[in-house]
């Protein structure tokens, strides 16, 4: 069950919903999570500071997945997700200089708890 968190600076809040839909679709279409339930969420940061080569906004993706994918596969998924954010920005005419980053983290399944609440 991949967990995807999209974190954006407040000046990108107006495109966070299409970004979230695009990165969730990109994750699903990557071919690595065919039968998985993908849980995505977005966090908008109202207080932020970006100090990197003229950038004034950020979009950071963190995808937490189960172990088993090699470095190349994880890098491909990271690129796919970052490009999905960029495409949404282009499609919506966002010209704000933005730093887009993506990190893939492996979940330690030995110390993970899973509960399905609400099931009878």
Automatic annotation (TrEMBL):
Q: Which domain of life is it from?
A: Bacteria
Entry keywords, A to Z: Isomerase
Q: Pfam families per the record?
A: CHMI
Alphabetically, the GO molecular function entries are: 5-carboxymethyl-2-hydroxymuconate delta-isomerase activity
Question: Is Isomerase tagged as a keyword?
Answer: yes
InterPro entries this protein is in?
5-COMe_2-OHmuconate_Isoase (IPR004220), Tautomerase/MIF_sf (IPR014347)
Its recorded name reads: 5-carboxymethyl-2-hydroxymuconate isomerase
Taxonomic lineage from the root: Bacteria, Pseudomonadati, Pseudomonadota, Betaproteobacteria, Burkholderiales
């Amino acid at each position: 069950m991949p967990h995807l968190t999209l974190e954006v600076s407040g000046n990108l809040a107006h495109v966070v919903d299409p970004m979230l839909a695009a990165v969730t679709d990109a994750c699903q279409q990557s071919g690595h999570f065919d039968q998985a339930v993908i849980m995505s969420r977005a966090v908008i940061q109202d207080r932020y500071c970006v100090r990197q080569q003229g950038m004034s906004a950020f979009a950071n993706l963190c995808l937490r997945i189960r172990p088993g994918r090699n470095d190349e596969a994880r890098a491909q998924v990271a690129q796919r997700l970052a490009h999905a954010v960029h495409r949404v920005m282009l499609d919506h005419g966002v010209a704000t200089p933005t730093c887009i980053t993506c990190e893939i983290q492996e979940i330690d399944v030995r110390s993970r708890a899973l509960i399905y609440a609400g099931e009878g």
